[in-house]
Each structure stands twice: as structure tokens, then as C-alpha cells.
Write a structure and sequence with these properties.
The chain is of the alpha/beta class. The chain is 35% helix and 17% strand. It has 18 helices and 18 strands. The strands form five sheets. The protein has a five-stranded parallel β-sheet with strand order 5-4-3-6-18, with helices on both faces. The protein has a five-stranded parallel β-sheet with strand order 8-16-9-10-11. Strands 12, 13, 14 and 15 form a four-stranded antiparallel β-sheet that branches. Helix 4 (76-86) packs across helix 7 (116-130) and helix 5 runs antiparallel to helix 7 (116-130). The chain is globular. Residues 1-25 have low confidence and may be disordered.
Length: 490
């Protein structure tokens, strides 16, 4: 087939000045080659800084300048090896992480930072396509020395901990109360944001390494805490922060008011099972989403796909500035106005508004909410007089975040307790109050980013391996007390 652009049938020069003659037989190869060339050019913008602050922005400590240089020189397989050296699941972070590494990129001081996330997802996609990703089961000596470990929860922290411990030789069983593994990656993240085949192929890789999954099993109920302590030498708690934040206003119990995760879970299950309309659907409804974060954007994109009549997203805080504010200088992660792909598709966003009350119809279903404008002054929100009004709606989704881990039979049976922040109490080395029990991810940190969850899973695995074997060769990305880059004293 002819190449009308002459783009790829002409010999071109690599960074090493070697000619490469690429001949096209399928236009899919054209697009792939163009994508690889764009990725190479973007990687070439990396300045190989003497002090790479992107490392500090990323809790995983990703070797970003190293794999950027390898991509620029077209050593793709070596770049993938560097990528996997610190991150078990780069396709998850490449799609779902807000990229604090890019905010810390030195180039970003006076120009656009390197598009690190795009390079990351391009790298791992090529690795899977080329067959460079394979299971890495432990050798017979490591397996013989390994011990039985239970991991509770199969979200990003649990999966990272399980894979690291399995590769160290331990016999790991992951307990998941849902019918399929993945946690919020499975039923909390919409398909349009991350296709589930990406998750499934990682799970297949983990099974090939020896990790076992027990789904439809709620730890503490279907398998007791006593059973876990008896049958497993160590337990890693990675159940997430799943207690949703409520909105304590009048008539919050009306029909048609749902927590965002309830709505997203039902919607994602319907998509996964090709089950048609979910039990809670936005089709033909006027939807209001309370909460301006990523979960709210996921609800927005889902509602639009379901055929909502209108979608309005409310945020109590003022609209952030377009550019990095003076009080949030490089290399901190700035609070700026961001537009997700879901926002590009439609819907309206209202800032600096507060919901005061829900209003119902004669059947007990929400028909509207009463809201007011608010002003932020000296760190306090004040209602502005004369701004009260009604906003019609017949489906309300509460996307205001989570308050902490779930209390229940598991924690009580293990003898673990919660802090005043609603997280499971642990020390600097991820160990709970009970010997042999470790805590990773949002369950111990509180609601956070996927990149922190994976970093904590890897670090908790190292702590668990040290407890079991007396020492460990597993890398620990961060201590339990690590925090994002921020200004001193803030």
C-alpha cells in the first residue's frame, strides 16, 4: 500500500544516527509508528536533571529520567524494565493517576512539563503488544522458604502487595468480597476511563505467578479473623477507605439520592455483564452530582452515556485558577482548574455553591435541591444572602469522598483499632497493633491516589516479608508516614 505522506517509507535517523527503514503493510502500523515517534520526541524533552524532582513528586520513586532516555534512544524493552522496577501496574497509573510527577518536573518551572503519563501508558501498551510482559513465578528455593500470607482486598494496594509477596516465594491468597477481583479498579472506575481487559490481563499474570484469589468471600464474616490468624502466618489489610461522606441536610433520605460508589458500582456491573439498564440509571433524568473531584467526573461521564436529560456538577469550593497560584509554587501539586475527558463531553459545573436542603415530590422522590452561593474568606465558608434558589433534579449522586475504613467483624476479631481519622492504626513499618498484621493503602492512609496505594502495597509487602523471613530484598517505596510534596509548615 502506498504511503502518501512519505512519513515512514523514507529511512530516518535514530538518536544514535542509525538509519531505520520502516515499510508499511497496514495503516495500523502507520498509526502505531507515529505514536511511537511522538512518544520518543516527548521523552526527548526530559532534561536529565541533576536533581530530578519528578522522583519526589512520585511516591513510587519511578525512574522517570532513566526510562525517558531509553525511550529517546529507542531502547524500548530496557525502558519497560526500568518502568516495572518501581511500579507493578504502570497501565493503571498511566490512565488513572493525576501525575504529581509532572507537577514536579523541572521543565515545568517555565514551560510545559514532560508528558510523563503519556510516555508511561505508551511504554506499557507496547510492552504487552510485543510480548515483553510475562509472569515471574518464584524459584523452587524461594517457594520452599515461603509462608502462607492472606491479603484482604484486591484493589491496587492489595494487588501490589500480593504480587510482591508471591514473587518473594510466599503462598499468597487474596480475599475479595466482590464476585471478581480488582476492588474499585473493577467496579468503581468506569470502562471509558480504564477498560477492564487491562485489569484482567494483570490478574492472569498474577495467577501465573502463583497468587490465589478467593472472591465472594468477606473477610471477618465468611472467613473469620480467627481462621485467618490460624491458617496464615501474616495478614495484609488492604480493604480501602470505603465509608462514604454523607451530606447532613434536610430530606437527604429521599428516593433518588445515592452515594456515587453505589451508582458507579451498579453501572459498571451492568456494563461488565451486558445486563442492560442498571438498577440506578440516569436515563432521561436531570442529574445533580455533589462533589467536584474525580469520582464526580466519573459519575458525569457515566450519566451522559446512560442518556441523562441534563447533568450538573456542584462544588462548594471556588473555581480554581487556570494557572498555578503563587501560594502553590513548583514542585508542589497545584490546585488548578482541570478538565477531564468526561467534562469535555458535556454537563455543567457550578462552583462556590452549597446544598442546603433536598425537596421531594408527592411520591417521596427528590425533585429539586435548594442551594446558595458561598464565599471563602479566612479559611471559612459564608453563605451569601439573597442567593438561595432551587435546582431541579430527580437523581442526586453524592461524590464527596470517603471518611475512612469500615469497622466490622474483621478489625474487631483481629484486635485492630481505628485512629481519630478513621484509618486502621499502624506504625511506620505498616504493622498494625497485632503482630503479623500489616495495613496498606487507603485503609491505613485514608482516601488517596492510586499511585500512593501501589507504593504502599509494595512497601507493606517488604515489611511483611521482613517479618516472615527476618530480612527482605523487596524494595520499600515509602514509609507509612510519607506525605505528598508540600510547602514547609503546610
Amino acid at each position: 500500500m502506498a504511503d502518501p505522506t512519505g512519513f515512514l517509507t523514507t529511512p530516518r535517523q535514530t538518536a544514535a544516527r542509525r538509519p531505520v527503514d520502516v515499510r508499511i503493510t497496514d495503516w495500523r502500523e502507520v498509526y502505531a509508528a507515529m505514536h511511537h515517534r511522538d512518544t520518543q520526541r516527548q521523552a526527548g524533552r526530559c532534561m536529565d536533571c541533576g536533581v530530578p524532582f519528578c522522583h519526589g513528586g512520585c511516591p513510587l520513586g519511578n525512574l522517570i529520567p532513566e526510562w525517558n532516555d531509553l525511550v529517546w534512544r529507542q531502547h524500548w524493552q530496557d525502558a519497560v524494565a526500568r518502568l516495572h522496577a518501581t511500579n507493578n501496574f504502570p497501565e493503571f497509573t498511566g490512565l488513572l493517576c493525576p501525575a504529581p510527577c509532572e507537577s514536579a518536573c523541572v521543565l515545568g518551572i517555565n514551560a510545559n512539563p514532560v508528558a510523563i503519563k503519556q510516555i508511561e501508558i505508551a511504554l506499557i501498551d507496547r510492552a504487552w503488544a510485543e510480548g515483553w510482559v510475562a509472569s515471574q513465578p518464584p524459584g523452587p528455593v524461594a517457594r520452599a522458604a515461603g509462608q502462607r500470607v492472606a491479603v484482604v482486598g484486591s484493589g491496587p494496594a492489595g494487588l501490589a502487595a500480593a504480587q510482591q509477596l508471591t514473587r518473594a516465594g510466599h503462598a499468597v491468597t487474596v480475599f475479595e468480597r466482590d464476585d471478581r477481583p480488582g476492588g474499585l479498579l473493577r467496579y468503581g472506575i468506569p470502562e471509558f476511563k480504564m477498560e477492564k481487559w487491562r485489569l484482567d490481563r494483570r490478574l492472569d499474570q498474577m495467577r501465573g505467578e502463583g497468587t490465589a484469589f478467593e472472591c465472594g468471600v468477606e473477610a471477618g464474616v465468611d472467613v473469620s479473623a480467627a481462621d485467618l490468624r490460624r491458617d496464615y502466618r501474616a495478614v495484609v489489610l488492604a480493604g480501602g477507605a470505603r465509608v462514604p461522606r454523607a451530606l447532613p441536610v434536610p430530606s437527604a433520605g429521599l428516593v433518588g439520592i445515592h452515594q456515587a460508589m453505589e451508582y458507579l458500582s451498579l453501572s459498571n456491573r451492568a456494563v461488565a455483564d451486558l445486563a442492560g439498564e442498571p438498577a440506578v440509571s440516569a436515563r432521561g433524568r436531570h442529574v445533580v452530582i455533589i462533589g467536584g473531584g474525580d469520582t464526580g467526573a466519573d459519575c458525569l461521564g457515566t450519566a451522559l452515556r446512560q442518556g441523562a436529560a441534563s447533568v450538573t456538577q456542584l462544588e462548594i469550593m471556588p473555581r480554581p485558577p487556570e494557572q498555578r497560584p503563587a501560594g502553590q509554587p513548583w514542585p508542589t501539586y497545584p490546585m488548578i482548574f482541570r478538565v477531564s475527558t468526561a467534562h469535555e463531553e458535556g454537563g455543567e459545573r457550578l462552583y462556590a455553591v452549597s446544598t442546603e436542603e433536598f425537596l421531594g415530590d408527592e411520591n417521596g422522590r427528590v425533585r429539586a435541591l435548594r442551594l446558595t452561593d458561598v464565599d471563602m474568606a479566612d479559611g471559612r465558608l459564608t453563605v451569601l444572602d439573597g442567593t438561595e434558589r432551587e435546582l431541579a433534579c430527580d437523581l442526586v449522586l453524592l461524590a464527596m469522598g470517603f471518611t475512612g475504613a469500615e469497622e466490622g467483624a474483621l478489625l474487631a476479631g483481629l484486635g485492630a483499632s481505628l485512629t481519630e481519622r478513621g484509618t486502621v492504626r499502624r506504625d511506620e513499618a505498616y504493622a498494625a497493633e497485632v503482630p503479623g498484621v500489616f495495613v496498606a493503602g487507603d485503609m491505613g492512609r485514608g482516601q488517596s491516589l492510586i499511585v500512593w496505594a501501589i507504593a504502599e502495597g509494595r512497601s507493606a509487602a517488604a515489611a511483611t516479608d521482613r517479618f516472615l523471613a527476618g530480612s527482605t530484598t523487596l524494595p520499600a517505596a515509602i514509609p507509612a508516614s510519607a506525605a505528598p510534596l508540600r510547602l514547609s509548615g503546610r
